[in-house]
Amino acid sequence: MSLRIAEIFGPTIQGEGALIGEPTVFVRTGGCDYRCSWCDSLHAVDSKFRDTWMPMTTRDVWAEVTHLSGGQPLTVSLSGGNPAIQDFAELIAMGKEAGYRFACETQGSINQAWFSKLDTLVLSPKPPSSGHKVDWLKFGSCLAAAKDCPNVVLKIVVFDEVDYDWARVVADRYPELPLYLQPGNPTVDPETPVDLTETTARLRWLIDKVTADKWFAPRVLPQLHVLVWGNQRGV
Ligand SMILES: C[S@@+](CC[C@H](N)C(=O)[O-])C[C@H]1O[C@@H](n2cnc3c(N)ncnc32)[C@H](O)[C@@H]1O
Ligand SMILES: Nc1nc2[nH]cc(C(=O)O)c2c(=O)[nH]1
Ligand code: SF4
Ligand SMILES: [Mg+2]
Q: Where is S-adenosyl-L-methionine annotated to bind (predicted)?
């Protein structure tokens, strides 16, 4: 199986959502069916970076994951771009045999049978500020494809009031899914230092919103890797 890979990096810590803080190797695919206005991974989305994406066999990817992890099982996070464009069934089977765990981050626009083989599926439907409108039928197909995945969670990025109100509606739609909210990072250029005062202010704004509303369903988390490394790639 040939996979189109933008980068494989780690071990680092998972910086977002349900598995925050967990040692992780990231496999980032090249190519996305979306183009969010604030995407922090444009090097894996914009076709002008296509030349930097490498066709790799499942075996090549697995060799790099085992090399980076020193053969010690850990969580492998499939991200991108949209990893759901590609076929990770073989990699997941190979890795699980060796005791590795698999998570996947996707926007919920494309479903794959291998979602059911994941340990964790993070569905991150895109709020209005992204410039995309969620196709809920497709999103539902992703949920259906993940029926045997034991940990399916929602992670929503919130930039402003409109996103926040939208997140509340989405949460009502899927009350059975654990919900993680993270503030949007407006500075996505890897060369531009992140303003930690602004990052903290955005987090505080979001925490103030949920507590003022007595909305106790979500967990509100920062992007831990952004606090530690800013927009640096490969961490
Ligand atoms: C780069 S995406 C790749 C996986 C998939 N395409 C998706 O969007 O879920 C990984 C995560 O980063 C989040 N993200 C991207 N840009 C962001 C930004 N500027 N601020 C906060 N989160 C961001 C996405 O919403 C998603 O949850
Ligand atoms: N440390 C770290 N945590 C992350 N969580 C989600 C990421 C992503 O870009 O998918 C990401 C990433 O790129 N780095
Ligand atoms: S769906 Fe994910 S990778 Fe694609 S443009 Fe949006 S944030 Fe970036
Ligand atoms: Mg990221």
A: 38-40, 81, 124-126
Q: What CATH number did the domain enclosing 125 receive?
A: 3.20.20.70
Q: Is the ipTM of this complex over 0.85?
A: yes
Which residues span the domain enclosing 60? 2-229
Domain tally, the chain: 1
Rg (CA), the chain: 17
The answer to whether residue 234 is domain-embedded is no
Structure tokens at 222: 């920062």
* pLDDT tens per residue across span 118-166: 999 999 999 999 999 999 999 999 999 999 999 999 999 999 999 999 9
φ, ψ dihedrals at 110, nearest 5°: -135, 130
Backbone φ, ψ for residue 54 (5° rounding): -110, 130
Pocket around ligand 3 at a 6 A CB cut-off: 32, 34-36, 39, 41, 45, 80-82, 107
Read off the tokens for 135.
């196709």
Distance CA(119)–CA(151), nearest Å, equals: 6
Ligand-binding annotation for 13, yes or no, is yes
DSSP 111: -
**Does residue 235 lie within any of the structural domains?**
no
Q: Cβ atoms within 10 A of the Cβ of 31, count?
A: 19
